[in-house]
Design goal:
The chain is of the alpha/beta class. It has a single domain, classed as Flavodoxin domain (Rossmann fold). Strands 1, 2, 3, 4, 5 and 6 form a six-stranded mixed beta sheet that branches.
């Protein structure tokens, strides 16, 4: 993987990476982006049990129905950051309920936004359009990354570099 050390100019920006990850794929991307940009990071925890096959099925159903869920209390106030980078897995073609809840709850506190999504496929446009409409803000950068790309360091590095150069 490329050297992900951040520069002084990147470090001076006040950026928060928020993400939800059921399997760890979105967490991997969030950690990498956080380190590259010298950002703060916050994991959004869904208080509803989403583990195992039943958690997977119920999570997909809830995402498809665009339901919200109860999330943990956040530690990092989004209003104190200039940019919020939001990461969500793609479930049944939609954002995870925990991210939907976060965006609805804190949308007035988000000054500027960028989105990334992880999925088994490469069809993330729908989630980006929905998040943009939910916040009524044009994102400064978008990145969709599928599972196989997370496992290929050169592809992963290139995607992250392209995503972060707009930030």
């Amino acid at each position: 993987m490329e050297n992900i050390e951040n520069t002084a100019s990147e470090k001076s920006r006040n950026i928060l990476v928020v993400y939800y990850s059921r399997t760890g794929a979105t967490r991997k991307a969030a950690e990498y982006i956080t380190k590259k940009l010298g950002a703060d990071m916050e994991e959004i925890i869904d208080m509803k049990k989403r583990s195992g096959i039943f958690g997977f099925i119920i999570g997909g159903r809830d995402a498809l129905m665009r339901k919200e869920t109860k999330i943990n209390e956040i530690k990092k106030d989004p209003s104190k950051h200039d940019l919020i980078i939001v990461g969500s897995p793609l479930w049944a073609g939609n954002m995870a309920p925990a991210i939907r809840t976060y965006l609805n709850k804190y949308k007035t506190d988000i000054k500027s936004v960028a989105f990334f999504a992880t999925s088994g496929s490469s069809n993330q446009e729908k989630i980006f359009e929905e998040a943009k409409n939910l916040l009524d803000k044009e994102p400064i950068s978008l990145m969709g990354i599928c599972t196989k790309e997370l496992k290929d360091d050169s592809v992963f590095d290139a995607k992250i570099a392209s995503f972060t150069e707009n930030i």
